Amino acid sequence: MKHELAFRLIGKLLNWSDADFAKEFRELQLMIDHKYDSYQGFQPATRFHVALLNWLSQFSTEAQRQTAYRFVKDRLVFISQREMHHLVSLLTPIADRIARKRVAEELGIPLFMTHLDPLASGRLDILRRRTLYVGLSDGARIDVFRRYNEGRVSNEQVVAFSEISDDKWDDLQSELWKSLARFGPSKDRPWFEAVCLVDDFSGSGSSLIRYDEESKRWKGKIDKFYRANAKRIGQSLSTDCVIHVHHHLASEQARRQIEDDVSRFAADNPKFRYTTSFSYVLPPEIVIGDGYADRELVELLRACYDPNIADEHTRNDIWYGYKQCGLPLVLEHNTPNNSVALLWAESKAGAAPHQMKPLFARRKRHSSNG
User: Fold this and answer.
1) Is residue 1 predicted with pLDDT exceeding 80?
2) Nearest-angstrom CA–CA distance, 270 and 283
3) What is d(CA 353, CA 351) in angstroms, rounded to the nearest whole number?
């Protein structure tokens, strides 16, 4: 369907005048060209304007359609590939500042002196090479991180997945030994002093680390890495090894939860030291909830919700998204389930009074099949 025809049909649904059509077409087409059409969840040959037309058709009244359209135009946060790659590029200066703070503490000097002191500069060079970067998911953009840091970070200190085999640890340590030899003779063991665990996005923080009250134990990606690799302290990892957890993007809710839970986890599991960082934290003002100023939007999210979209992973009543995060967020490769359900949810045929249609269809990480 040509985009002009799709917009004409959208204009009819929204009762646009000719002046409205000219204005809305120009403004929305700009965002479509620069962002929305690049969404990787669209089927081949599908474009945003067709998805928008289909999405708006689920609402029974013009008032609902107007509210939904204003939500997309005024509230939607779409992170493009270029923007995500920029967030990836910020990891290196963030990690470098953390390393400088560590060296400053070790040498008992002010942070600014790490740029001037030759001893600090030499220690920083070694610490940078003794840092291992580990992807926590396929969204961590480790390949992009490698390209941004060609010549600065060795391929032998970057691992795409957190499940590292014994053979891989041996290879990493062997390459580390060769690299350290270029800094001159040393009696230090070829072990890593920092491990940076990298992920793309966190909406609630629960997948990274959480305490399960039922089982009375920690769960999540940090705990899994800890249990698999604590035995390597004194072998592949130094006795004062730092676990640096970095997200390219996070909600404010996730930032608070992660910092609090990592602090509690560290108290229970003291073999490592821990630090957290984020390339960007979304402002809390974007979050939609019961107290949100746009009451028409809040009512729409509740009224046009199909409870059958919930499953064992999301739990119930997720019109504001998983963990009620209330994010109006779409990432170029997928829509988080922390975003409001109206953006991504799709009802099964005939399963509910309101048949939800997705604007940005979500690829589920978990499947209930098989």
Assistant:
1) no
2) 32
3) 7
